[in-house]
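Reviewers of the previous submission asked for a worked example of the structure-prediction workflow described in the proposal, so we include one complete record here. The input consisted solely of the amino acid sequence. No template or homolog information was supplied to the procedure at any stage.
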Amino acid sequence: MPSPFPGMDPYLEAPAEWPGMHSLLIAHAMGELNRQLPDGFRAKIDEYVYVREAPSNDAERTLLGKPDAFIPEGKPSRNGRHGGAAVLILPVTVPTSRGTMPVPRKKRRNRAVQIVTDGGRRVVTAVEVLSPSNKAGEDREAYLLKRREYLGGVNFVEIDLLRAGNRMPVVRPAPPPTDYLVFASPLAEFPEWMAWAFTVREELPVIPIHYDPDRPPVILSLRGVLDRVYDESRFEVDADYTRPPVPALRPADAEWAATLFAKPAKKRKGG
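From that input alone, the workflow returned the following structure tokens.
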């Protein structure tokens, strides 16, 4: 069952729903790209971690390249490698004073789609789907740092399907004010860039994803991706379209949205 909206469904932006929708958007974007990429290239989900020291209010955020690795405990085999069933190791209780207590570190994992080649050793394209923390939260500065690494280094696409928060900076001329924005910077054309600005009333764009200057780009249909996300999440089961979305629509857009759910008038008998 597709969303009743012709483009982005603003009800998917709700804070309680977006984390799950964000993960599905990334997963289906990866799948859509892999169905089109030629041999030698593949799309994968990359995860990087922001670490924030606590509880200091002015603590700096550190961008780590990869999440922590988990190494199970097991009995070593004859060749010295670990194998077999994992063995539960009981912790050792060590008394500590308040002055020696370790400062807790808050971690936030961000995921993006990458197109890689050369056996996965070389990243050629990065596709980011923005989250609220990227736009207005505590991770904005760290994300901007990661963004600067992308620009001019790889083909870069940034998908912003959130009306709340601050737009990411782009070179002049800036696109017009809008509800949603997709920004693309093909490496072969850097510093030239492309942008698709669209409102809640408009259809989602089809985005060319560049990965090799000698090959045509593959196509990412945001409408197709969103339809799969909407269907697989069964969002319609809990969606209450009688209430305003979060964040709320502009009054004119709210009136327009109400027409999407208006029941057609019944014809009179004999009419």
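The first helix runs from residue 18 to 34. We consider this example representative of the routine output the project will generate in years two and three.
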